[in-house]
Amino acid sequence: MKVSDLIVKCLETEGVKYVFGLPGEETEDLLFSLANSTITFVPTRHEQGAAFMADVYGRLTGKAGVCLATLGPGATNLITGLADAHLDKSPVVAITGQGDSERLHKESHQAVDIVNMFKPIVKWNTQISNPQITAEVVRKAFKTAEMEKPGVTHFELPEDIAKLNVDKEPIAPRKVRRSSPEYKSIQQALGLLKNAKRPLIIAGNGAIRKLASKHLRAFVAKTHIPVVATFMGKGAVSDNDEHSLFSVGLKMKDYVMCAIDHADLIITVGYDVAEYDPENWNPTKDKKIIHIDFTPAEVYDFYNPDVEIVCDISGALWELNFFVEKEEIIFSKEWFAPVRQKILADIASYDLSEGEAFTIPGTLRILRELMHDDDILLSDVGSHKMWIARNYPCYEPNTCIISNGLASMGIALPGGIAAKLVHPEKRVVAAMGDGGFLMNSQEIETAKRFGIGYTILIFNDNNYGLITWKQEAHTGKSFGTALTNPDFKKYAESFGIKGYAPKTVRELRENLIEAINSGELCVIEIAVDVSKNKELNKKLSKNVCDVFEFGG
Known about the structure:
Blueprint: H1 3-13, E1 18-21, H2 28-35, E2 40-43, H3 47-61, E3 65-69, H4 73-88, E4 92-98, H5 114-118, E5 124-127, H6 134-146, E6 152-158, H7 159-163, H8 183-195, E7 199-203, H9 212-223, E8 227-229, E9 244-247, H10 255-262, E10 265-269, E11 289-293, E12 307-310, H11 313-326, H12 337-348, H13 360-370, E13 376-379, H14 383-391, E14 400-402, H15 412-422, E15 428-433, H16 434-440, H17 443-449, E16 455-460, H18 465-475, H19 488-494, E17 498-500, H20 505-518, E18 522-527, H21 531-541
Parallel strand pairs: 1-2, 1-3, 3-4, 4-6, 5-6, 7-8, 7-10, 8-9, 10-11, 11-12, 13-14, 13-15, 15-16, 16-18, 17-18
């Protein structure tokens, strides 16, 4: 068989169902090999969209999403999506074509050094330079991408190598047992717990993978330790749980920070410093910290844990659960309960009244009411992201997808396609600003072509709103952020799908109900008043912690 045939057989062996990408001359052999396989090739309208789809597919399944691009501009167009998956710890395997190997030693049409270009944003990559290594390369790409912590791998396939014959078979995946916690580290952590009065958990993106969430919830139920989620850790513990203090991530001093400030022990679970800078929650570097993760803590002045439990997160939490129950390590809920009540009251204060201008937090109140606990909301990057992270309660892992490592605009719309392919039974809403929408709106055609139905929610302020929000907070004015937009309802209709542009709160509710329940691809444009952004700045510029009395 040809090398391209073997690659596809390897992909099938890895359980790949979809490959997202664009066709190219240099990937012709691979494309025709895919055509004769069980794998569905999803031609996208831009390689960035393909990478984002693979990214979200990987987040939701734990299996590597696969994206394909040709050489040169095809490969370079993947970079933003791959960098996003890299910093957000999503398993992705990228495949790129390349020109004939005989011309790669010299300047040549469309030829750039893709392998070296990708090095900073992948866990591992290589070129298939010899047919005999094909099966090994593919197996290593998937094994490396999917092992904790997950990330991006890449291999390049020169055009002439793809055509060569090879007498090899795929290498079957084997289950790898993850490391168990080390007894001494567990005992050291228990020692810190016994001496603590107000411990607090920060749950990061690692807490929503594998079985970590299940064991974290059990640990919280046993100990009564409050939990704060990062943007990417939302849902690790349900926001309906009395121990949840929702999420942290605003650079402003929000109510949740009052609890963090008064905690005397921080337990981080699956936390990456790229999610939320520890300088924001440990500015004086005096916090006692227990680090629980698959990998050792990043070396950072503001994040120097006293104890590191480096192993499978679920295993670490299982061990801790055993000992805290055995030794009856339980804490009072009284110290953090007022913080939770304040957060809940603040979220409820944004209810929309008829005749009132639409706001992002007000719309989220309606959306949360209409969405089932296990439905999926994907958030693009913009001012709405901050409100979703802060004000949208999340009840299950991987039901509120927020990119906050690279934090790239344009992920939500293509990501919605992947989410619906993974979970066709769930309702999916992709929320974005007008800026993020027009970055990848062409992927509406991809969704339409494949009959994929989900709701695209556009918060339109004719602005790069998050940048304006930050500029005005820093300087009192903004520059370079104003936009003009098309009629989004007509824009949607030009793709042959339903468009909505509600004018009243009643219409907004009715449109959301109709769109979400229809199972059809549709666009809802919400013209939003962003004055709540300034109001939040003003509210949080005061010492919000003065309303709490923390004892002890």
